């Protein structure tokens, strides 16, 4: 028995080491750049990092990222000046684009449609509207040089806060323990494919078993509609509060949204108050090819091309950019 | 509790260590512990159905003794019928009740009467009921045929019925093999345990890498067969052949391996059926414990092949229809069984049903001959064709599937519904078939390598394959649990 336990333990340990090596050799696990909070309390990636973002098992999606001097994933450095034509895209993981090669981003696609413009992509996974406006506000000098700023907004996710606060939960990912765990590519890979979910679920199951059971509260349709309406009104109030707090240059700033998932209340508000917005829903709806990745809800290459087209058409038709 | 769940990987080491360290002194205590562990194993799925297992155990324990103690043949027969009727009634109610009601309603509607199906019930099929009822019945049958003496040890008998490694999906054991091991003193055996661990690893590979990774493709093709060309449908049903083999033989390997950890040897259930050279050989290699059960308790009592050719053919038809019906309460399984009878009868009439009983393809060669390759391919194609019925939701779906093959007889490349590269699966199956061929002489030794370094490398690659093909979105339950 002792021999069995010792030998099994030894084999287990050796196989773990061997698998760690294989996962590294075939680059199955994703690299995750380090994040930090800058002097303006803006959360971003530590500058000048590069690596590969991997989705799913067997490298279902494999793409290269490059964090520039400003702390964002982009092939170019951000140096806005008064005498150049610049466009800024501000948003969450959709703009950040870790699921695409950094040299094939939406910004790059837009640049290819014009003779001489620079597109700066201020994308960071998890950025909501408060993060975005706080960023623009904190780097006012730089953004004042940028001719056009497009801010991605998803009503149901991005307006849950009325003012910016540091997201401590996200920064907790930079704890020493998490950094140590990230060093094992085998662990990163197994976590990313969901192999570590069952033990976590087991812990939740045991916790809920020990807790007293509560009867599920059934909500009527009317109640659901009322809650939804209240939520929409709250989000709208948050939008107004954020705009008031950090400023919103209606001449230069445009929102990028999907009208299919945006309530009419918000669209009406934007129109009534002269907020410029771009709606990519018609192009996405008309597309015969899929616009998102199969295993992920982020835009695929075709989806990104359509977004670039929406922005390009807007700049050419309404702003006269060439 | 599933063998491929985290619960089992916590449960098994606890039971294993307790079994050999805490409860090893007396056989009776060890068996009691195994019985409790088995009931926990089953009860974690649904404790209410433990009463069914207990009822089946009690009935056959006492029936066995009554048969043995009775000198009167008609009384013996009556006792046997009590066991058979009780177990078949359990199966009949939980598994077939709704099927019979719906079939009756359909039949009446053919005659022009509109009978609303108001008698159907919301019945949960207790996992493993088809397996443990057959196992307990075999005990009474063996005593009736005087092949076995009944045990007086109720704990041992209850452990035999509910032994957790094989409780929910077999192998269906006979008391002469399993009960005798349970009543005997077991001693820890290092070699047996390592063999068990290797079988568990190989079984997990077959389940996770082969069966589960293919499942989304098969599900997609069968769910949308009307929109795919013949090439895709052939791909789908061929992959299903591998899926069901990986799933069930993987389960059996884990069951046999787990039993070995407790010092118990279960019978082999799969002997590389993919390399069968005719349909008769296929049935000597596929789900062996069920085939053996039907041969012993249905086919031979009916006269087997020692009666006239016509009666033998009748017996073959009966055994395949019953076997099909055992799999599930659906006409598709009966059609599947009937189709196998049709495929088996010519082999039987030509006297070729036993010629491959004691040898394996390319027994003493590195490669099979061209003739053998052709035989294997024909057998695989026929068996795979029958799987259209096995996998389809209804008879009309099965015929729709077949019809689509010839009405849309064209080729189109198939894309994985979750976006994976299909080439990965073709390479995987190629390697799997090659490896299975390499180990074809001994289904209980999947990692037989002289060099320990090579063996280590193969272990690591097998685990790597599991990491590469693990899919969190796949339903990980075993196909045969529904039977």
TrEMBL record, chain A:
InterPro entries: SGNH_hydro_sf. It comes from the Bacteria. SUPFAM superfamilies: SGNH hydrolase. GO terms for molecular function: hydrolase activity, acting on ester bonds. This is SGNH/GDSL hydrolase family protein. The lineage of its organism: Bacteria, Pseudomonadati, Bacteroidota, Flavobacteriia, Flavobacteriales.
UniProtKB/TrEMBL annotation, chain B:
GO terms for cellular component: plasma membrane. It is found in: Cell membrane. The chain crosses the membrane at residues 6-22, 51-67, 79-99, 119-141, 312-327, 418-437, 453-470. Keywords: Acyltransferase, Cell membrane, Membrane, Transferase, Transmembrane, Transmembrane helix. It is a multi-pass membrane protein. It comes from the Bacteria. One of its GO terms (biological process) is alginic acid biosynthetic process. InterPro entries: Ac/AlaTfrase_AlgI/DltB (IPR024194), AlgI (IPR028362), MB_O-acyltransferase (IPR051085), MBOAT_fam (IPR004299). It holds the Pfam family MBOAT. One of its GO terms (molecular function) is acyltransferase activity. Belongs to the membrane-bound acyltransferase family. This is D-alanyl-lipoteichoic acid acyltransferase DltB, MBOAT superfamily. It comes from Aquimarina spongiae.
């Amino acid at each position: 028995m002792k021999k069995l336990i010792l030998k099994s333990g030894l084999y287990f340990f050796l196989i773990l080491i061997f698998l760690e090596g294989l996962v590294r050799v075939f680059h199955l696990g994703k690299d995750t750049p380090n994040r930090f909070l800058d002097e303006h309390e803006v959360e971003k990636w530590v500058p000048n990092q590069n690596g590969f973002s991997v989705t799913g098992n067997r490298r279902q999606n494999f793409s290269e990222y490059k964090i520039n001097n400003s702390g964002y994933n982009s092939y170019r450095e951000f140096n806005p000046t008064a005498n150049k034509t610049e466009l800024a895209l501000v948003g969450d993981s959709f703009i950040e684009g870790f699921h695409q090669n950094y040299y094939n981003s939406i910004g790059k696609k837009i640049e290819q449609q014009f003779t001489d413009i620079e597109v700066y992509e201020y994308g960071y996974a998890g950025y909501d509207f408060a993060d975005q406006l706080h960023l623009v506000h904190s780097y006012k000098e730089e953004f004042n040089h940028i001719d056009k700023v497009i801010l991605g907004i998803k009503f149901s996710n991005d307006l849950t806060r009325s003012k910016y606060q540091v997201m401590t939960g996200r920064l907790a990912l930079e704890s020493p323990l998490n950094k140590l765990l990230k060093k094992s590519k085998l662990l990163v890979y197994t976590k990313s494919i969901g192999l570590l979910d069952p033990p976590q679920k087991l812990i939740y199951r045991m916790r809920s078993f020990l807790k007293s059971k509560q009867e599920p509260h059934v909500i009527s349709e009317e109640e659901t509609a009322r809650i939804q309406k209240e939520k929409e009104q709250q989000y709208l109030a948050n939008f107004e509060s954020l705009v008031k707090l950090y400023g919103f240059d209606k001449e230069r700033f445009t929102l990028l949204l999907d009208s299919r998932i945006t309530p009419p209340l918000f669209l009406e508000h934007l129109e009534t108050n002269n907020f410029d917005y771009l709606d990519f829903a018609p192009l996405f709806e008309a597309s015969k090819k899929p616009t998102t990745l199969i295993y992920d809800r982020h835009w695929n290459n075709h989806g990104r091309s359509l977004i670039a087209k929406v922005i390009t058409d807007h700049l050419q038709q309404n702003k006269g950019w060439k | 509790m599933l063998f491929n769940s985290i619960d089992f990987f916590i449960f098994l080491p606890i039971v294993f260590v307790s079994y050999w360290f805490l409860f090893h002194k007396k056989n009776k205590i060890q068996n009691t512990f195994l019985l409790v562990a088995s009931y926990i194993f089953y009860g974690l799925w649904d404790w209410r159905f433990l009463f069914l297992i207990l009822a089946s155990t009690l009935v056959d324990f006492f029936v066995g003794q009554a048969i043995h103690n009775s000198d009167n043949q008609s009384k013996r027969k009556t006792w046997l019928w009590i066991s058979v009727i009780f177990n078949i009634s359990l199966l009949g109610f939980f598994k077939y009740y709704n099927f019979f009601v719906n079939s009756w309603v359909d039949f009446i509607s053919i005659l022009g009467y509109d009978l609303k199906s108001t008698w159907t019930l919301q019945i949960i099929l207790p996992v493993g009921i088809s397996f443990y009822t057959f196992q307990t019945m075999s005990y009474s049958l063996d005593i009736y045929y005087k092949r076995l003496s009944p045990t007086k040890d109720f704990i041992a008998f209850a452990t035999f019925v509910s032994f957790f490694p094989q409780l929910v999906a077999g192998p269906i054991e006979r008391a002469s093999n399993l009960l005798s091991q349970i009543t005997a003193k077991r001693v820890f055996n290092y070699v047996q345990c390592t063999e068990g661990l290797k079988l568990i690893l190989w079984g997990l590979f077959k389940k996770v890498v082969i069966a589960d990774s293919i499942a989304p493709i098969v599900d997609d093709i069968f769910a949308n067969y009307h929109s795919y060309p013949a090439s895709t449908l052939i791909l789908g049903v061929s992959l299903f052949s591998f899926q069901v083999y990986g799933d069930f033989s993987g389960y059996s390997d884990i069951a046999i391996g787990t039993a070995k950890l407790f010092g118990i040897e279960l019978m082999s259930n799969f002997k590389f059926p993919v390399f069968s050279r005719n349909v008769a050989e296929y049935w000597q290699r596929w789900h062996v414990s069920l085939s053996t059960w039907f041969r012993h308790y249905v086919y031979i009592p009916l006269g087997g092949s020692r009666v006239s050719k016509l009666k033998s053919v009748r017996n073959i038809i009966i055994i395949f229809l019953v076997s099909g019906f055992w799999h599930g309460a659906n006409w598709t399984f009966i059609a599947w069984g009937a189709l196998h009878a049709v495929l088996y009868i010519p082999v039987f009439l030509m006297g070729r049903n036993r010629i491959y009983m004691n040898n394996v393809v390319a027994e003493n060669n590195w490669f099979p001959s061209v003739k053998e390759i052709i035989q294997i391919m024909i057998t695989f194609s026929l068996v795979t064709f029958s799987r259209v019925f096995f996998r389809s939701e209804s008879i009309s779906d099965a015929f729709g599937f077949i019809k689509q093959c010839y009405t849309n007889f064209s080729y189109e490349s198939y894309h994985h519904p979750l976006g994976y590269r299909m080439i990965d699966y073709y390479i995987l199956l190629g390697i799997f078939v090659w490896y299975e061929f390499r180990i074809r002489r001994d289904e209980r030794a999947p990692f037989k390598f002289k060099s320990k370094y090579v063996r280590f490398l193969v272990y690591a690659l097998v685990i790597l394959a599991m990491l590469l093909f693990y899919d969190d979105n796949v339903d990980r339950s075993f196909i045969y649990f529904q039977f």
